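Appendix B, Record 12. Input sequence as logged:
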Amino acid sequence: MGNMIELNQIKNFINGEWVAPSDCETVPLINPSTAEIIGEVPMSTPEISNQAVEAAARAFPGWCATPLPRRMNYIFKIYHAMQENLEELAQAIALDQAKHISEARGEVSRVIEIVQMACSTPTLMQGETIQGIAPNINGRVIKAPLGVFCGVAPFNFPALVFGWFIPVAIATGNTFVYKPSSESPLFMQKMMQLLVDIGLPSGVVNVVHGDREVVEAWYENEHVVGVCLVGSTPTARAIAEGCGRNGKKTMLLGGAKNFLVAMEDAPMDLLIENILMSGYGSAGQRCLAVSNIAVVPEIHDEFVERLLEASRKITLGDARDPDIFMGPVISAQAKAKVEEYIRVGVEAGATLALDGRNPALPDANRDGYFIGPTVFTDVTPCMRIAKEEIFGPVLSVIKVGCINTALKMISDHDMGNGACIFTQNSYYTEKFINEADVGMVGVNVGICAPHPYLPFGGIKDSLVGNNKVQGKDSVDFFTQNKTATVRIVNPKETDATNKPVDASVRSCVAS
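Logged structural output:
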């Protein structure tokens, strides 16, 4: 399990060059599996952030003028480079983000699929025409790039969010400034080097590390046309406000509290298997992790017994160890937050059927930030553990009388990212798809993540604004509709006489 890349100092990448921090503070980069310091991350200043934007702005005219087939050649090269370096990219995620190595490989594999989707950008950005809006006059709509976009990534999916933002943004002709999480920057260090290796022109993609000051500098920068985020709802709202004052586009995915509904005919083995992966995979640190499990009375007791039995068998340890199931949460602060929610749940009267505090660990990981599988029963929807995003391996089991009760509980919640149902009944299936008040629905799957060709994003407080990532939605966000009205003139029929303006001209200029 050796380190795959140099870990000593994380660098910014601006205008085609790696830039070591010289005039800004740094923070330690920590391996959550062991609590060991493995590097330093620069906390870049607003001035450094603006330097990256300036580099992207200088690169934009040449990049957007690059013929589309040549831009697409780079996207294909990214696709192949990621395939060839999948293991190194996954090891980087398993080290600083402490995602289990099998899941890290899965994340990189999904990004490769997203880049594959980006290879179809020319088809997705085709424009429209309408002939004969007046005699010899046609209308045309083209999808044009806008300029410099900026993006902010969370710690939990450093590869996935790169895939959601950058490939489509640059394929459509824009340039980009990207801020990875300071808690998981290693993937982007490796990925940026791959972009250098394929010959991507300087300034097309720039990387700046830091905190909110990096982002806030974008609000007033005239070159920034839009900002993307995957993060918490409060952060999304803050960015929306800052960008809104200056008319910048935003694509902001916020927090989540996901429901899973288990009906009386749920296939029990499949149900338990999917809950383990959804609730405990990535230590519960993903936006589509199951959190609230609504179970009908007919199977409630059997379900709880089976869930507890399976949960007790979950093994914890170093995220790079393929023989364990679950790694740690990201930091000491995250561990303390999850432990506080466990305390709050007990205080509220929920039954702590399985306590994940102080789990059994290998000696090498005793200082890591581990929370074991935790299961609450006798939970009610009004409890904080059922209402707030915990972002850890904590499951709340709620007994519900029927599907209507479950659907109302989902509808009443402020967030609306995803919800799943386990059933073999087509009536339940169609009713749930139509009535579940969320942006993404799953049927007999524990993680309702759409395929890369389909839009990914929630509703209500899980999405600030209207734009979602992936597929045609992403292409629409990174382009603008530019409309042209074209009169076809036959040069052989023109003359210099002063004739009255004909009706077609009048109709064309009237509006």
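Residues 1-6 have pLDDT under 50 and may be disordered.
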